[in-house]
Specification:
The protein has 370 residues and is α+β, with helices and mostly antiparallel strands. It folds into 4 domains: 52 residues; 81 residues, Elongation Factor Tu (Ef-tu), domain 3; 84 residues, no CATH class; 82 residues, no CATH class. It contains 8 helices and 16 strands. The strands form 5 sheets. It has a 6-stranded antiparallel β-barrel with strand order 1-6-4-3-7-8. A 3-stranded mixed beta sheet has the order 9-10-11, covered by helices on one side. The protein has a 3-stranded mixed beta sheet with strand order 14-12-16, with helices on one face. Helix 6 links the parallel strand 10 and strand 11. The protein starts with 7 loop residues before the first helix and ends with a strand. InterPro entries: Barrel_Baseplate_J-like, Baseplate_J-like_C, Baseplate_J_M, Phage_Baseplate_Assmbl_Protein. This is Baseplate J/gp47 family protein. Belongs to the Mu gp47/PBSX XkdT family. Pfam families: Baseplate_J (PF04865), Baseplate_J_C (PF26079), Baseplate_J_M (PF26078).
Length: 370
């Protein structure tokens, strides 16, 4: 039976009744010193009840917070993900042969982020140089799409200061908040399903512990007997959520070609924990676009259509997984939840959409029929 914590009003009444009984009077008068003392005692007692309530919440992993949650998680080898640095490549025009040295300072043209070059590079005969970049500070501020305007600051002789990101600048994440739902979920899974040395759940835990990884799926024997495919997404780090890099194995694994980029980070993180005989591939899911056609839409406007597209994309992210199914009820539920939509007809797809092995559903073309 749960303990019923008394309210402050109940505590005041109890203390005043006890004082009256101890003093041999029918009641403690409002302006007597005893009355003020009773109010003070009740307030202190209320604070003690609150402290005991807080202690009780910290006494079990599921309700703990802050440093106590971190301590409970550490007992199972679960630790907050560290902040990570954005990485990418920048291209700058210049005079052939001019050197862009390692450690050169680069910043976004809008001043929102700073980077440094991580290798020497020389301008080629084509009049441009491409150099690897790394953000100066950890966090998502350095992330950006391909074509982001960059500036060398200070200028480097023979190299034009204005350049562009050759591809997306990705990988920067904030440090994981101990009180976040994601950290709580990882901790509770560690208690509910402790590691068994290579179960499917273990690979999920190892992948989800990598900074930036938000979702993961396991395919045993996906590349043949004794192999494990780990597919994952980085929804909060990369545009579109899909990892950037090439599929493969860990850099210390001699039996297959190593991965690059985000896939290499995941493969290398799993490698020390995986069974020694397993050959683990880190793989990006294949996007599977799903087109929708919607008719008879009430409150038909550009804003409503945009909200429907957003709702459908969110539904696909929440429901989608390799070898899964997107049901008509999922689509109807997403559209019906959009504010102001009271009538609509889903014209396509008309039935369940099967998601292929290794694929992940993404929003395709949404057509609105008047």
């Amino acid at each position: 039976m749960p303990f019923a914590r008394p309210s402050l009003t109940a505590l005041i009444q109890q203390v005043l009744a006890d004082l009256a009984q101890a003093s041999g009077v029918p009641a403690v008068l409002r302006w007597r010193p005893d009355y003020a003392m009773g109010i003070a005692i009740a307030g202190l007692t209320q604070g003690l009840y609150g402290y005991l309530d807080w202690i009780a919440r910290q006494a079990v992993p599921a309700t703990s917070t802050g440093e106590f949650r971190a301590a409970w998680a550490a007992l199972k080898g679960v630790f907050p993900k560290d902040a990570t640095l954005t990485k990418g490549r920048g291209t700058f025009p210049g005079a052939p042969g001019a050197l862009l040295p390692v450690g050169s300072a680069v910043r976004r043209a809008d001043g929102s982020a700073a980077y440094v070059t991580t290798a020497d590079a020389a301008v080629g005969l084509n009049g441009s140089v491409t150099v690897p970049l790394q953000a100066s500070a950890a966090g998502p501020a350095g992330n950006g799409p391909a074509g982001t305007a960059l500036l060398l600051s200070p200028a480097v002789p023979g190299v034009t200061s204005a350049g562009l990101a050759e591809g997306p600048l990705t990988g920067g994440t904030d440090a994981e908040d101990i009180d976040s739902d994601g950290f709580l979920t990882r901790m509770l899974l560690a208690y509910a399903e402790p590691a068994q040395g290579g179960a499917a759940r273990d690979y999920l835990d190892w992948a989800l512990a990598v900074p930036g990884v938000t979702r993961a799926w396991i395919q045993p024997n996906g590349m043949g007997a004794g192999t494990v495919i780990v597919r994952f997404m980085m929804d909060e780090t990369n545009p579109g959520g899909f990892p950037v890099g090439s599929n493969g194995v860990a850099s210390d694994e001699p039996r297959a070609a190593p991965a690059t980029g985000d896939q290499l980070a995941v493969a290398n993180a799993i490698f020390p924990d995986q069974p020694v005989t397993a050959l683990v591939y880190a793989v990006v899911p294949t996007p599977q676009p799903i087109d929708f056609s919607i008719g008879n839409l009430s409150q038909d406007s550009a804003a409503t259509r945009a909200e429907i597209r957003t709702a459908l994309a969110a539904m696909l992210r929440a429901k989608g997984e390799p070898d899964g199914t997107i049901f008509p009820s999922d689509t109807s539920g997403a559209v019906d939840a959009v504010f102001g939509v009271s009538r609509f007809t889903i014209l396509a797809p008309t039935g369940p959409v099967e998601i292929g092995t290794g694929s992940l559903p993404v929003l395709g073309t949404v057509t609105f029929v008047s």
